[in-house]
Amino acid sequence: MYHWFHIFPKNTGLSLYAWIVFCLLPFYFIIRSSTVYEIIVGVAMIMLFFTAYRLSFIKKGWTVYVALSIEMLISIGMTIYFGYVYFALFIAFFIGNLKSRAGFISLYVVHLSTTVIAFTIGSLLENEGFMAQLPFNVLSILGVILLPFTISHRNRREELESQLKVANERISQLMVVEERQRIARDLHDTLGQKLSLIGLKSDLARKLLKVKPDLAEQELEDINQTSRTALREVREIVSDMRTARLKDEMVHVQALLASSDMACEISGEGSFKHLPLLLEDVFCMCLKESVTNVVKHSEATTCTIQLENHPNEWRMIVRDDGVGLQHKLPARKKSGLIGMKERLEFVNGDLDITSSEGTVLTIAIPRIIYQKEGEVL
Questions:
Q1: For the chain, which terminal residue's Cβ has fewer other Cβ atoms within 10 angstroms, N or C?
Q2: How far is CA 340 from the centre of its chain?
Q3: Could you tell me the maximum CA-CA distance found in the chain, to the nearest angstrom?
Q4: What's 166-242's CATH class?
């Protein structure tokens, strides 16, 4: 649906108000320095130009080229008789938005040639209006030369960005499908086979119950063990899906720091190889919150992340070279730190914050948290 303001070029980087000023300028110059007859002719040419300009945007086929030809003729007349070259900029914007390469090149050459010829004739005639606007007219000629390529390049870039966005969305969809298929395979290979085995052994136990009770009891014991194994494997699958991975979070925080023009230094990545999933989830949350605080409040240029594996604890140190904690933080900025402390208290961890030249956050979690069914974390 087209509205009245579609007489202005789209996606030019200028606001609607700037284009309104461009449209009012020719009226100002014509009324200021012309006779009544010239004013009538000039206003008529301006109105005809904008009518043709609107048609060039809303029509297709040969109508566009007819409208563009009218625009060029009016632009030539305005340049020669009134010293007004600015209409050439409107045409330059339109040419820059053409998608056809052949149409772009041919119209660019024709438009540039006619504008330069009209400019030359106008300068030779040395009329008062032309000489008064000479500096602006020279800038307009430069705009006619450069603007079509600028607009065309930007439109091409936006088109490629749009295609890239669509491709990324498609990749995300395919990743979801692949993940679903992987989960289905895992469940089939674990739970499906175990349930089939339980069904077979249940039928066998029912048949042996009266004939050979000892064998039936053995089958029931096998069913019990198989069900426990299946339950454990399902829990492992679910835990793997739910738990955040530290290596993935490292990638995310590196991207976050890079987007904020901060250098990122990471050491000791191999120290957390055998980290329990529960602790990995806690470290991920603490890392995310720490780096977010660095980006928001530190004004730093470098952030260092150090992972350490000690005999009695795992330790993560996040250090920045920013302004430090110069003032007491307001309550709304403490909520993230409070959340970190609460998570760490759940696993008997500790959070230490020091600030002098920058800020250092030390997150430590003991290696032995609890013991359950003979398993030590």
A1: N
A2: 28
A3: 122
A4: mainly alpha
* Packing angle, helices 246-259 and 277-293, rounded to 10: 10
SS3 for 121? helix
Cβ atoms of residues 280 and 244 within 8 Å: yes
Token duo for residue 48: 């005809």
Q: What long-range pairs does 241-249 form, CB within 8 A, spacing at least 24? A: 241/183, 243/277, 243/278, 243/280, 243/281, 244/280, 244/281, 244/284, 244/285, 245/280, 245/284, 246/272, 246/275, 246/280, 246/283, 246/284, 246/287, 249/284, 249/287, 249/288
Distance from C-alpha of 319 to C-alpha of 310, rounded to nearest angstrom? 19
Contact 70, 32 (CB under 8 A): no
To 10 degrees, the CA torsion angle through 270, 308, 353, 371? 100
Q: Return the half-sphere exposure (C-beta side, CA atoms, 13 A cut-off) of residue 346.
A: 11
DSSP state of 359: E
pLDDT tens-digit map of 188-238: 766 777 778 788 888 888 888 888 888 888 888 888 888 888 887 777 766
Handedness of CA 263, 344, 293, 328 (dihedral sign): negative
Dihedrals phi, psi of 266, to nearest 5 degrees: -125, 135
Residue with tokens 């679903």: 180
* Prediction pTM value: 0.46
- Letter string b/e over residues 3-24, b meaning 16 or more CB atoms within 10 A of that residue's CB: eeeebbbeebeeeeeebeeebe
Pairwise CA distance, residues 156 & 296, whole Å: 35
Q: How many CB atoms lie within 10 A of CB 215?
A: 14
The stretches of 34-100 forming alpha helices (DSSP H) are 36-58, 62-82, 87-96
Q: Give the architecture-level CATH label for domain 246-376.
A: 2-Layer Sandwich (3.30)
CB contact at 8 A, 70 and 55 = no
| CA dist., res. 179 & res. 309, Å (int) | 32
What are the pLDDT digits (tens) for 280-303? Answer: 888 888 998 898 888 888 888 999
